[in-house]
Amino acid sequence: MKISTKGRYAVRVMLDLAQQGTENYIPLMDIAKRQGISEKYLESIVAVLSKNDFLQSLRGKGGGYKLLRSPEQYTVGSILKLVEGSFAPVACLEKKPNRCERVAECPTIKMWEGLEKMIDDYFEGITLADLMKEGNDAYDYVI
């Protein structure tokens, strides 16, 4: 599994908004400048996040984006799954239930299911609030 640029940027946008607070709408231009990401590219990301009730948007003067919930209520896993899809490391695990004709005799299926679960558990265990903590270190998230 490889996290795409879209997935990484979605996490950065959500974290940026969390750091700005949940009271005010933040213009996309401001987020783009702080993050060094094209405003045009961010438009497609915030559209997905807004459509799925992760963000609230307001058009016009004084408009922009803000989180709908507190940073503690957003996991990195939920953000990544929204923009990336599943964490399935192999194609046969992408749809549930697994419809692979070889699943009953596959000697590796448990291994792939275990990897998917580890990835899911890891990212679901990290919230935006965790990422906001001073001195946050990737090793703090070891399962």
Short characterization:
The chain has one domain: Arc Repressor Mutant, subunit A (Orthogonal Bundle).
Task: Write up what this structure looks like.
- With about 140 residues, this protein is mainly alpha-helical.
- The chain has one domain: Orthogonal Bundle (Arc Repressor Mutant, subunit A), CATH 1.10.10.10.
- About 45% of the residues lie in helices and about 5% in strands.
- It is built from 6 helices and 2 strands, in the order H-H-H-E-E-H-H-H.
- The chain has helices at about 5-20, 30-35, 40-50, 75-85, 110-125, 130; strands spanning about 55-60, 65.
- A two-stranded antiparallel ribbon has the order 1-2.
- Helix 1 (about 5-20) crosses helix 3 (about 40-50).
- The chain is elongated.
- The mean pLDDT is about 90.
Notable traits:
143 residues, two-stranded antiparallel ribbon, Arc Repressor Mutant, subunit A, mainly alpha
Q: What is the total domain count?
A: 1
What strand line-up does the widest sheet have? 1-2
| Multimerization status | single chain
What percent of the residues sit in helical stretches (DSSP H or I)?
40-55%
Count every beta strand, where a strand is a DSSP E run of 2 or more residues.
2
Q: What portion of the residues fall into strands of 2 or more residues? A: 5-15%
CATH architecture type: Orthogonal Bundle
Span between N and C termini? 18 Å
- Summing up helix and strand content along with how strands pair, one would put the structural category as mainly alpha
Main pleated-sheet profile? 2 strands, antiparallel
User: What is the H/E order?
Assistant: HHHEEHHH
Low-confidence stretches: none
Mean pLDDT: 89
In CATH terms, the superfamily is Winged helix-like DNA-binding domain superfamily/Winged helix DNA-binding domain
User: Class, according to the CATH hierarchy?
Assistant: Mainly Alpha
**What is the C-alpha radius of gyration, as a whole number of Å?**
17 Å
